[in-house]
Structures are given as structure tokens and as C-alpha cells.
Amino acid sequence: MAANSHSGTPDRREGGNPLPEGWCFSQISDVSLKASQRKPDDEESFAYVDIGSINRDLKVIESPQKLLGKEAPSRARKVIKQGDVLVSLTRPNLNAVALVSGEFDEQIASTGFEVIHPLLVDSRYIFALTKSKEFVDSISGAVQGALYPAAKSSDVQAYCFPLPPLAEQKVIAEKLDTLLAQVDTTKARLERIPDIIKRFRQSVLAAAVSGKLTEEWRKNEGTVWQSLVIDDIGEVKGGKRLPKGDELVEENTGFPYIRAGQLKQGTVINTSDARSKQLFITAETQAKISRYTVNPGDLYITIVGASIGDAGVIPQHYSGANLTENAAKITEFKKPIKSQFLSYWLRSQELQDLIQLEIKSGAQGKLALKRIKELPVPYTDIDEQTEIVRRVEELFAFADRIEQKAAAALEQVNNLTQSILAKAFRGELTAGWRAANPELISGDNSAEALLAKIQAEREKLALEKKAAKKPRKKKTDAVTATKQTR
Q: Where are the residues of the annotated region Disordered (predicted)?
């Protein structure tokens, strides 16, 4: 029997791992039938499920195409039925799998799927197997081709797994439905936290630059806010394009060149990403554009491209760096100013909305230096600015801690799914159930007995299929001879 060839030893071990009582090892091919294929009729309307129809996060079929047969691609051939399990053979590491619901019964899927048609086993159990890390690693390890790595049908069919008795499969599937739904709910809530934190930061900025954050503090200090424009605060100057023929270099020449891709998160970043990696100019180039450098505490604001309006403060370690022509700087302050306070205003939603209006009314989607000079600025004395910066930094630090904890929790939840699946396939989720129902896992109800039933059913279906294809019997020689004598 197929199960014996995979169980390895009498104590039902595979790779040294003991199986619960009544279980045995099997391959996908032992418990399923191959899906049938056909070419849709020209005028036939059907739902076409291709790789793009699978929501990889939710593991469901989502918005398949509605096609007529004459419009169908040549890959639209595999007939799918309710309870079938779809496994994408292309880039199997992405785990595009789904359980076919009644809505898509008798529809057509791409030949890019292996369609598992479970026979006398619980489809939900087989579907859960295909979501496990062990399955993904096994299929991904067998991919063929470098450009579009793809597994083969035989890789899926040969996958070896622990098979419980049918009654236990159903219990496991129900437990997984409940537990994984709870995990998904928790995951969805955690994934919303970054957006909540983002809105919280914007609310803090709005309160800071409107004076609401320090309203009580101001009653004791008696400060008064003014409505100014940026030109009242400091000088607005542009960056500089590299001279024709000069190029950026990766070698640290001592002359860093700040590009637009680095002007993020309210500061200047330096990452391994090509757009935000720190590059440099030569001493010769520096001599040509030395008037376009920045000082610590200067404000930057991007003026072209998709990220127009990104703003922040030049940090200390970028003193004397050269600034891209795609950004402007606010420097040589005319009034006492905390750079961070002005940065909060530039990054606030209120000013960002004004900038977008300026861009739409301007030419070529560019924020001109003249328009920057005319942007409004709320201004208060340096003491209140200092207090605002202190409070904002305190609240932002609190938000950072919440975000870090949420990210750590989300990582744990992501790992929890695989942990639950692993426990399920070791029989740990149903240990108590087995103890209470020994009659449902032994004898004729064992997994080995189930495999025997599947094999018998497979043979029966093969005979029926063969009989259906058998041609009509030829007329007997006697009948033929009688006709000939007439």
C-alpha cells in the first residue's frame, strides 16, 4: 500500500518523528484525483481563475475574470470543483493557494495551478497542509527555471504528509478554522496600528503648530502668536545641479551630496537603497558648487517629483554637504527659531495641503522658491517653541514605542499561524479528542484503513471511466450472416 512505502517503520515514523495512534504517512497523490481538463466552447461563459485571482494573504479566490470560451487564453483548461485545492506552480514560495468554494464549482482554472481533488478525505485538512511552511519549503525547493521559478505537478503530488483518520481530520479542520480566524482578526487589528499612529502624529503636529498643545502653558507665560510668511523667518535658497559632465561617486571624498531620495522622515537618511544611498562629489566638483551647501539646523523642502513638500531639518553630521537642485533650503534665520518647530509646521497636514494647491496652480508640478517664501508660518517666541518641541518629541517617542511593540506583536502573530499548523499536523490540537474517542481512530477507522478505501474507490472510478469509454459491441457474426443470406 502507498502508505506503507512512506511510513518507513512499524512505529509510524517519518524522519524520526512519531505519529499519533491511528495516523500514517501519505502522499498527496495517494488521497486525491487529478483534475480533468477541457477546452471551453466558444460561446461558453465561465469564471477564469488565474494566478492573479488568488489573494495570497487571505488564501481565497478573489475577482476572477468572466470570459467567453473564444476569449480564453490557451492556459484556461483545468476544470475545478467545490472542495478542490489550488496550488500555484509559479513562484510557489509566494504560496498562492486557495480552497474552491461552491461559487466556483465547475469553472475553469489556469494550467499554472496544480488542482488537488481530494478523495474521501477532508478538503480543509489538505488545504491547511498547503499553507504550512513545510509544504511551501518542499515545493519551493523543487522549482525549475531561474527567470520564472516554477514547481512541477509531480512535486505537489509527491509531497509526503501525516494523515489522520477521517474523523480526526474533520476535528482538526474545525479547530484550525476557529484558531486561524482568531489569528487573522488579531493580525488585521495590529496591521491597522501604523495608520492609527500616523494619524496620531499628524494630530500632534496640528496641535503643536496651532498652539493647542501649549494652551495651558501659554496662560502663565503670556506669549502671543503671530501670522508670518517664510520669508519673514529666513532666506529661501535652492540647491544645485551637478555641472555637466560631473558625476556622483560612491567613494567618500569628504564632500557628500544630498539627493531628494534621502530627504525623508524629517531628516536626511542614508540607506542601502539606490535612491537613498549616500553618494559624494569630487573635490573638483565641490569647488564649482561650493555656494550650495547646507548647515546643521537649516530646513529642507523638496520642490519637484512625487515627493514634493517633504520637509525636515539638516542634521549636524551633514554640515557643509551639497544640496540637490530638487530641494530648497530655509537658512540664515531672521528671527529666533527652533528648527524642529518650523519643521513641524512644514510637515503638518495643513501646510502640506497648501503646498498641493500651490503645485496644482503652478507650472510643471514644481514648487517655486518664490511660492515657498510666501507660504504662511505661525510664529511664537523661542520659549514656547522650545516647550512645543519638548512635548512633541515626548509624544512622538511614545508613538514610536507603541509602533515597535505592535510590530513585534505582529511578527509573533505571523509566526503563530505556522506554529498552530505545525501543532495540528503533529496531532497536538486533538490529543484530548483522541483519548476520548479511541474507536474513531483504530481498526476500520484508522488512516491506513482509509487509504485502503481510497485505493478501492480509485480503482472503482477507473473501471467506470474505462467502461464509459468502451465502444459499442459489434454485431454478431450470426446476425451479419443472416443479413447476407437475405
A: 1-22, 464-486
91 with 67: CB under 8 angstroms? no
For residue 49, report the phi and psi dihedrals to the nearest 5 degrees: -100, 110
Q: Pick from 375, 378, 342: which is nearest to 358 by CA?
A: 375
Torsion of CA 195, 197, 199, 201, to 10 degrees: -150
Strand partners, 293: 322
Cα dist from 317 to 80, 226, 271, 486, whole Å? 61, 33, 15, 113
The domains found in the chain, sorted by start residue, are: 2-163+446-469 (3.90.220.20), 226-379 (3.90.220.20)
pTM: 0.75
Q: Residue 27 in contact with residue 156, Cβ under 8 Å?
A: no
Q: Which residue has the cell 471551453?
A: 40
Residues in a beta bridge with 312: 300
As given in the structure block, the three cell numbers for residue 288 are 564649482
Span 185-208, pLDDT tens digits: 999 999 999 999 999 999 999 999
Element (H, E) at 151: none
- Looking at residue 1, its pLDDT comes to 43
On the question of pLDDT at 379 being above 60, the answer is: yes
CA distance 59 to 86: 10
- Which residues are CB-contacts of 278 (< 8 A; sequence separation ≥ 6)? 256, 262, 270
159 close to 171: Cβ distance less than 8 angstroms: no
Instruction: Measure the CA–CA gap between 179 and 173, rounded to whole angstroms.
Output: 10
**Element at 375 (helix H, strand E):** none
Cα 17 to Cα 12: distance, rounded to the nearest angstrom:
8
Closest to 461 (Cα-Cα) out of 100, 167, 32, 105: 32
Number of H helices, E strands in the chain: 15, 25
Q: Check: CB of residue 159 under 8 Å from CB of residue 30.
A: no
More confident residue, 265 or 144: 265
Q: How far apart are CA 165 and CA 450, in angstroms?
A: 7
DSSP string across 323-373: E-TTEEEEES-SS---HHHHHHHHHSHHHHHHHHHHHHHSSTT---HHHHH
